[in-house]
Specification:
Number of helices: 1
GO biological process, one term: positive regulation of translational elongation
Protein name: Eukaryotic translation initiation factor 5A
Strand content: over 45%
Oligomer: single chain
Strand order of the largest sheet: 9-8-7-10-11
Number of strands: 11
CATH superfamily of the largest domain: Nucleic acid-binding proteins
GO molecular function: ribosome binding; RNA binding; translation elongation factor activity; translation initiation factor activity
Order of helices and strands: EEEEEEEEEHEE
CATH class of the largest domain: Mainly Beta
CATH architecture of the largest domain: Beta Barrel
Pfam families: eIF-5a, IF5A-like_N
Number of domains: 2
Largest sheet: 5 strands, antiparallel
InterPro entries: IF5A-like, IF5A-like_N, IF5A_C, NA-bd_OB-fold, Rib_uL2_dom2, Trans_elong_IF5A_hypusine_site, Translation_prot_SH3-like_sf
Length: about 160
């Protein structure tokens, strides 16, 4: 053995993995699945019977949770699929900047300024109108696989 010191730098980010494996046959409607590298919510699952020499296959119809696009995939039911780690967090809305970014108050009192306004027109209108009226708004932020997007809104009354 040599007396040299070795320093290893971790290239992975600390914390939870972005996805975890789950057997295709156990994924149900309203669950989550990764299809074509995108986190999706399952809206329909159908399972075909096995052939003479084959596996039963699961046919997934899902909606991308960030873009709203419909995607489909067929996977043997005994194989593993990637399931995204999806979290939903509520933040209080502090400000909306001119360039479409929002300023949110986190639980620990700091601000989160890296999120854009949602692309969904009705949600965007509700947020802008509520903010203009001076209401206290709480936005729900869904995050999965390193992506985040505002997906909901709650009105907690007028500002004091």
């Amino acid at each position: 053995m040599s007396d040299e010191e070795h320093h290893f730098e971790s290239k992975a980010d600390a914390g939870a993995s972005k996805t975890f494996p789950q057997q295709a046959g156990t994924i149900r409607k309203n669950g989550y699945i990764v299809i074509k590298g995108r986190p999706c919510k399952v809206v329909e699952v159908s399972t075909s019977k096995t052939g003479k020499h084959g596996h039963a296959k699961c046919h997934f119809v899902a909606i991308d949770i960030f873009t709203g696009k419909k995607v489909e995939d067929i996977v043997p039911s005994s194989h593993n699929c990637d399931v995204p780690e999806v979290t939903r967090t509520d933040y209080q809305l502090i400000d909306i900047s001119e360039d479409g970014f929002v300023s949110l108050l986190t639980d620990n009192g700091s601000t989160k300024d890296d999120l854009r306004l949602p692309t969904d027109e009705s949600l965007l209108t509700q947020i802008k109108d509520g903010f203009a009226e001076g209401k206290d708004l709480v936005v729900s932020v869904m995050s999965a696989m390193g992506e985040e997007q505002i997906c909901g809104l709650k009105d907690i009354g007028p500002k004091n």
